[in-house]
Amino acid sequence: MIDLRLPRRLIFGFLIGLGLIVSLVLNTGFLVQAATSTTRDPIIMAAGDIACDPQSSNFNGGKGKNGNCQMMATSDVVIKAKPNAVLALGDNQYEKGEFANFQASYDPTWGRFKAITRPVPGNHEYYGSNAEGYYQYFGKAAGDRDKGYYSYNLGNWHLIALNSNCKAIGGCNVGSPQEKWLKADLKKNPKACTLAYWHHPRFSSGTHGNNKIVEDLWKDLYDAGAELVLSGHDHSYERFAPQGLDEKADLQKGVRQIVIGNGGKNLYPFKTIRANSEVRDNESYGVLKVALHPKSYDWELMPIAGDSFTDKGSTPCH
Prior knowledge:
By secondary structure, this protein is an alpha/beta fold.
């Protein structure tokens, strides 16, 4: 008698292989998209001042109204961009950053890409508690809850998340734990390009204005040749020319700062136009897209559906 077990196995394996080939051919579009996403230069999306308190009169089931609470609309912008990482720039959840509010407002919107979100805390996260809701919601992604600062690499870039709630973590001045950590981190990570982000902007034409409390952090980044700083806090969009210290333009070695506080909650007026402010808008919500190339970066402010303001450009690394 002839043993047919081996041929049957071979036939069965052949049919499975054939089925996989057919499936791959039929899904060519998916394969192309997956290959593109793994080979392209990294893309980040960034914004702050995002999710309304669910008790707000403008919450409207998370959809917003009266031009406020646009966190779902801005999160839709992020989804379409398919980024590698999302930077939540603080005041991510209002009013006191309670965990229950994160679950009710942030999570159904910006929480859709929580797995790739690398956040920093804002002042509203610290109101009423020591940012307990923030650290409970984001977990390990938020770093050590006694610090709130950390760093990581993405492509040829080194990214540094800092905590501008300075009083809560022992200061931001020279010699403070965070400042010493930053200086050491910059020395250990001499990447070609460096991006830092925190909540309170060093420079701003908005109602909150400049924040000198983070001046020493800015100086360390400037001395190390960093390219870009992203912040929120003032609920508007503002792009500055590269600067050194004390509002002095420095197109050769300066650090560019962009304020993206139009992430959803509401919008603020401008108060005092600061030196080197190149572009400003306080009428549109949006999210900043940054493509991190090996020796340069492209930025583009992407507005929500129905808004038209945008801003884009490209700059080489130092």
